Amino acid sequence: MQDANASGENYLDVDWNTDDELEIFGEAGTSAHPVATYSTEAVVDTGEASTSAGDSRFKLISHFIGMGFAEALVSKAIEENGGGDTESILNTLLTYSTLEDSPKEEKQLSTNSDLSSSDYNENLVNELSDLDSCSDNDLEDNPHSISEKHKMLLSLESSGSLSEKDRKLLDLANMGFAVEEASIAMERCGPNESVSVLTDFICAAQLSREENCHLEDDLKARFICNGSSKNKKRKLHEMRRKNEMAEETIRLPNPMIGFGIPSMQPEKVDRFIPESERGPPYFYYENVALAPKGVWDTISRFLYEIEPEFVDSKYFSACARKRGYIHNLPIENRFPLIPIPPLTIHQAFPLSKRWWPTWDTREKLNCIQTAIASAKLTERIRSALERYDGDPPESVQKYVMEQSRKWNLVWVGRNKVAPLEPDEMEMLLGFPKNHTRGGGISRTDRYKSLGNSFQVDTVAYHLSVLKDMYPNGINLLSLFSGIGGGEVALHRLGIKLKNVVSVEKSKVNRDIVRSWWEQTNQTGTLIDFDDVQQVDDERLEQLIDTIDGFDLIVGGSPCNNLAGSNRVSRDGLEGKESSLFFEYVRILNSVKSIMRSRRRSR
DNA sequence: CGCATTATGAGTTGCAGG
DNA sequence: CCTGCAACTCATAATGCG
């Protein structure tokens, strides 16, 4: 107990030797590395037809049926997309469903199914992909040529069977917007959104697409101008690689330092944010970096194609945490939290040095997760080591190291390894000691909540730019708050929290945040909600009107269907919990559009 | 029922070495 | 170019105990 206390508080007096620190950051800082690995080039959805097994197809079909689509439509959409890419299948289904609201349409689709390779469907898919690319035939070039879908809507109108959704679509189509664009706008803004907001959205989307095109041209031009032979060769290599994969995916930077870490000289990073998406309000989204393939492409696509910032928290603390962040915050003049936390295992756990074998060369711990090693395992390790006086043979060393890395074990005695204690995790993650302790919270729950949390120093570094912008404090909308990593980060930065609206499913987590809020003598107001579903447009309007808008929207949506440690249900972004990402998108868009309309009417 | 304990791989990436 | 290997990962479900 005393040991824990000592190690926990030790990190406050900054007495570790600075050589180590320089060494650590030297390695990252010296490797001059162009951070721009993200390609702004168009992403074209070519459904990857690789995962073909009857089983997976069945799974796919039942998945979409579970989402409320008709079976006939689902199998049709899967065929259209080659059966692989759930993303493009979903897109197709969404477009179908907006066109298929009336039973008449469904009949037409099913009776015409022998035209299954029909022009209608092929065109639909082609046009959908055109939306994502900067293709030559821009939709705006020919706004008044009436599309097939537009015709359908018109015929529906004349037959008098037009749903409210279709009515809006038709209105937009009559205004000269493409039906596909209109339906995408409705999907993203929600079906109840007014026509004026929808037109705003579409215009913004068109604008950002245009700018993306220009940026791409710009990049191409630059490449041609400075193209040394070496660059050309590299580019060619990349192109070939791209053709093999037939799809450009977001790649993780190496080293994983995002747009910069505190020890680095600020580097010029050209990062593009569409004009219409620049803050305020600012937003900050987080999730695991090592998600299944394509997940970050989708996330980025729904968050205005903004380039994710991938950062490993090992550059901010003594343990690794590889995460991706998408935000529209400025990235100049960031500063770290003070005091700088311990950056190596040795600094974080001084007392463990006595027991640390020389052949365990770890300097950083691995990622903190939600489950810890069993006592049986640490016992197996001890009995394996006790047979030897000096260093064990290499095979035993290898075994012990494998397990220690896998379970993030530290040395706590002679031949004794142990998993981290909850309070040690709190320290490593940048939370105050005992943040998750007491108040009826079980130890198991502490591990779970901590494993799901932000690394505070990392997040605070990104949010630090808000301090000068909001000297009087901010209104915060915190989605999937967990144990309040965002709130703690802002508080530790000295940014006053005026009003915090926090949405968190777990009661124990809400209790933790509430108790932290009271202990830190906050003068603002904390409002919490149980479920993101409760936070609908009406509620948001009411909140925005009473607190005069949000300045920042923070959220890390559930990762459990994305995380590598999940052996059971790593289902990707469409998984049961991780699909709540789309709730983040919904709420973000809703807040933005409400605040736009309030600003206009002022 | 709450809580603690335990066992349960795959997917992806990077890298060294042909 | 390819191939094998090492490394790493915000977890779930079943079970037992009080």
What this model shows, in words?
There is one protein chain. 47% of the residues lie in helices and 8% in strands. With 602 residues, the chain is an alpha/beta fold. The chain has a 7-stranded mixed sheet, sandwiched between helices. Strands 4-5 form a two-stranded antiparallel ribbon. It starts with a helix and ends with a helix. The structure holds a DNA duplex (18 and 18 nucleotides).
Tally of helical runs: 24
Strand content: 5-15%
Rounded average pLDDT? 76
Q: How widely separated are the two ends?
A: 59 Å
Radius of gyration: 26 Å
Strand order of the largest sheet: 2-3-1-9-6-7-8
Which geometry do the CA atoms define?
Answer: globular
The helix/strand class is: alpha/beta
Number of strands: 9
**Which sheet architecture does the biggest sheet show?**
7 strands, mixed
**Percent of residues in helical segments?**
40-55%
Low-pLDDT windows of residues: 1-55, 98-145, 207-245
